């Protein structure tokens, strides 16, 4: 083939592509709103409250020591209990900030003897609000030594063999360490202690409030700012740091209902999607732990909810400023998202694709109008379309520059207000410095462990992730695992392929919207070389649920049309499916909530796949 011939062929390909993308298309009016019926309020509020009972139940203790005592470096905290009170079996201490030092525990039988080292706890060993050291024998004297410049302890707990608290004879020397003994937990677990990455985000939120240098700097501050609001309201407790994440987990449900309702225009399917999302395991677990993934997921749902509303409006028949309301709300949510986690930029890429697809449609409608300037389509005069296109398009793009670039930048910058820099840098400088730190951290991250998994394993749930795993004696175990509901994640796989098929073959708007949203969150992880985990799929789960709803609606239309099922029978099938999803939620609840369960329960009912050996290895 000659170069000239090849050039001509390339031109033909370009012309075909141009004609496909920019060919005239009939103008469509702004879609009419569906009236919101009373039964919908009952369904949305009822499902939300029903889920909230599970979400806030046993969320975390709100009674924890709040007073503290500053201890100078290498000062030994010596405690002695009276002979008649009994012997010390276990010593525990409460340390809420992420420690930068190590602790040593020593004992001696009496004042005449030498101190005997028992154990040493490095900063990596502090696994919760409390740390406990079980003594090899039963002693009357114990001491704790640390090697930091200063350390803030909140409470010390001395226990006898029966688990009863002992008050040392010299407790008056350390009044802040023995003034809240009644707040000491009777059991140390995920309810009374921090777990997983709460050790980074909880203390960092506390440091923001108190003007201290933050320990966790690997993500932007917005998520920790929201966690800090919980601390301001309820004190520094497990319940406080988890409160707003759990609350937003509840608020996600009405948003999913509204988005599904707008996409499929079917109230029953929307309620179904809302319900199965409510009782997806990942949604439950991830919103009850004080990490930032819940916040970025919430903001992504908000972004796409408002973008979907904008896409179904037209500035040809609606006031331009009215179309800017959902578009602006989407941009503000985008700003909060990227100020929470950089993965918000993945969502922004999807939003950009959807927005410019809408701009292209405006242009195609404009070309259609130009073909008959005196005509009218769908009660819209072509002359008005021609007159509005250029000005409205330029104004809308300028509006987006403000709401998707400038305002998100301001939100991102302002999120650093509570962020303390040791160099006393200004707001802009400390923000820039932290971007460099975050980039270096994530580009060099190398923390493989037994829960590491790749992107293609997530929808299949090959490897659930253990956030909290504990052997509480004998065959009893406790655990909090991150995974999905099989009736959501596994069914979501064929639902995605059907949605993709509908996008390509049928060129339908709703499935195209869902595919863009889903792939914008999921596809970038294909190219990430650093260690990844199943919880990174959480931002994709809302779209999985919506794709299932869309797929089921298509099944309904075909089965009803062919008279295989009627409306009532299909509704019954949806109800049975939702009940089954809820039944699986109840079946797996012990291993996703931190409840105590038996290893035999896992072996008999939950060990479906090889890696689903919850706590059996402990």
Please give the alpha-carbon distance between the first and last residues.
67 Å
**What is the strand content?**
5-15%
What profile does the largest beta sheet have?
4 strands, antiparallel
How many helix segments?
Answer: 17
Point out poorly predicted stretches. 124-128
Instruction: Please compute the radius of gyration using only Cα atoms.
Output: 29 Å
Strand order of the largest sheet: 2-7-4-5
Oligomer: single chain
Secondary structure: helix percent: 40-55%
Q: Which descriptor suits the 3D outline?
A: elongated
Integer average pLDDT = 88
Number of beta strands: 15
The assigned structural class equals: alpha+beta
Please give a handful of descriptors for the protein shown.
618 residues, alpha+beta, four-stranded antiparallel beta sheet, 17 helices, 12% strand
Quick overview of this protein structure:
The protein is an alpha+beta fold and 618 residues long. The protein has helices at 3-22, 38-56, 198-209, 222-234, 238-264, 267-278, 281-287, 293-311, 320-338, 344-370, 382-414, 427-444, 486-506, 509-522, 541-561, 567-593, 599-606; strands at 69-72, 77-80, 88-94, 103-108, 116-121, 130-139, 141-146, 150-153, 155-159, 165-166, 376-377, 380-381, 465-473, 476-482, 596-598.
Explain what you see:
- 51% of the residues lie in helices and 12% in strands.
- It has helices spanning 3-22, 38-56, 198-209, 222-234, 238-264, 267-278, 281-287, 293-311, 320-338, 344-370, 382-414, 427-444, 486-506, 509-522, 541-561, 567-593, 599-606; strands at 69-72, 77-80, 88-94, 103-108, 116-121, 130-139, 141-146, 150-153, 155-159, 165-166, 376-377, 380-381, 465-473, 476-482, 596-598.
- The chain has a four-stranded antiparallel sheet with strand order 2-7-4-5, with no helix packed on it. The chain has a four-stranded antiparallel sheet with strand order 6-3-9-10, with no helix packed on it.
- β9 and β10 (165-166) form a beta hairpin.
- α2 runs parallel beside α6 (267-278).
- Mean pLDDT is 88; it is low at 124-128.
